[in-house]
Amino acid sequence: MSTRRPPAQLSRRERQILDVLYQRGPSTAAEIQAGLPDTPGYSAVRALLRILEDKGHIRHQERGARYVYTPKVSLEKARRSALAHMIQTFFDGSPEQAMTALLDASAGDLSGEELDRLAELIAKARKEGR
Fold first, then answer.
1. Tell me, what's the pLDDT at 130?
2. Do the strands 66-71 and 58-63 form a parallel or antiparallel pair, or are they unpaired?
3. Angstrom distance (rounded) from CA 82 to CA 44
4. What structural domains and CATH numbers belong to the chain?
């Protein structure tokens, strides 16, 4: 039995804040606020930043009189975690079902080079899996 806690769920606005941090890098509350759609008030942004810190998603450093916020995990690690959660939630834990859905949704949008690269990755996975 796993002792890992499931990741704390994020609200839409919390995800938007993380998106801003991943896009812009270290940012103050005012900079984050400026990057959000349907701009919330400054107090709301500060409250959400505290919540994200409490959930363990971001941290801050004091720079003069300002707090500068950064994500605690790299974008690549966050992507892998989100993808694993999505596969578990929507595809019964099956990477095959997830890949099939992705290919069905974007087959016409993939170039020959992209399809070749996917074929190479599948061949590599097959070889390493044995």
1. 60
2. antiparallel
3. 25
4. 12-71 (1.10.10.10), 75-129 (no CATH)
